[in-house]
Amino acid sequence: MAAERADLSQIVKAYDVRGVVPDQWDESLAELFGAAFAQVTGADAIVTGHDMRPSSPGLSRAFARGAAARGVDVTEIGLCSTDQLYFASGHLGLPGAMFTASHNPAQYNGIKMCRAGAAPVGQDTGLAEIRALVEEWSTTPAAPTTGRTGTLTRRDTLKDYAAHLLSLVDLSAMRPLKVVVDAGNGMGGHTVPTVFAPLPLTVVPLYFELDGTFPNHEANPLDPKNLVDLQAKVLETGADLGLAFDGDADRCFVVDERGEGISPSAITALVAARELARNGGEGAVIHNLITSWSVPEVVREHGGTPVRTRVGHSFIKEEMARTGAIFGGEHSAHYYFRDFWNADTGMLAALHVLAALGGQDGTLSGLVAEYDRYAGSGEINSTVDDQAGRMAAVKAAYAGRDGITIDELDGLTVTAADWWFNLRPSNTEPLLRLNVEARDEPTMTRTRDEALALIRA
């Protein structure tokens, strides 16, 4: 594929680059992205890493060549999880680029970029400029060079990454636990053995073999069908819990001893309580508007200040930086930590869960009951012809009702005394996404069905 035929509007997203290889982008474009990243960041040195997809090593090396041609020295950390790349960016003080398409199918690949200290690069923070340069240079034989060629240096950061994470959680009082870990043939198979090695754990591994073709199931634990093997293995082995990581291992999902999935909101509340305790019972905690009512409640109960924000890592990270928050969590199982450069790391959240469970004698289901207080619908997608029209119809149906408030911070949030729901349009598909929560199951079901009837009318 010639670079000049690339349609960058299809692959440059709000927060990253992502598309099918080689149909939508290839190594020639990756090299231009490397040169553009070097120019936009103005850095003398950068760090790169990649996941286990077949196309990742070649794309990553091409990006490094493009940056080196601009006189930038490149530290290549090779195979890594996304949060391991964020660690390297923060620890080394360098802008970074991670080659991964996260949970997308095997034919996809992408680039997640950050400035020094793991600060995000999105449309408003450099990605639009990077895209413009790549488009400009793709019609010329090569991107301009500086006359000096930077160096390419290999560095292994896995042990340093593990040591940093383990330093952030008190695991000294932890009892022995049996844990099933489903890596989904993704980067959890690379990071888990090193991070968990010092702990009193019996690890039952599922799909630790690094294989970017995902031969067993998609590396997307947000879809319940991809948790079935983990749930079965937890029950089969009598494990204390199960953990599932996505393809680039920056998200972690938790299953209790009964094989039941635990809401990421409950994990957010649990980790928030622990991080507040670690910080003297004070500090801000960020949560997006789709997390459970239980999250701000628990934060307040433990002396913290909850801060509500829009969905999306750029909004979370902006609020983390603005407020100096100690922790942030999303309903999608992204967990952000001040002591991890405000970046998201599922592994650190997993260590908190292990420490909390291992520090007492009860079960995980018993432990999280305190943090899982309400009935939730999960996210329900509806295909609609007119997103704006349906949103307006739903708003009109609830506006003016006694005891109901409406806000539009992100989509449409309708709140009553004993229930709330949020309705958001997808940016990429003709979908409306509904999340409902209520104080009990019958109220949640009634509210959900009423909202869906309006959405699907």
Automatic annotation (TrEMBL):
SUPFAM superfamilies: Phosphoglucomutase, C-terminal domain, Phosphoglucomutase, first 3 domains. This is Phosphomannomutase/phosphoglucomutase. Belongs to the phosphohexose mutase family. The lineage of its organism: Bacteria, Bacillati, Actinomycetota, Actinomycetes, Kitasatosporales. It comes from the Bacteria. It comes from Streptomyces chryseus. The keyword Isomerase applies. Pfam families: PGM_PMM_I, PGM_PMM_II, PGM_PMM_III, PGM_PMM_IV. Keywords: Isomerase, Magnesium, Metal-binding, Phosphoprotein. Residues 10-138, 160-259, 269-374 form the Alpha-D-phosphohexomutase alpha/beta/alpha domain. Residues 379-451 form the Alpha-D-phosphohexomutase C-terminal domain. Its cofactor is Mg(2+).
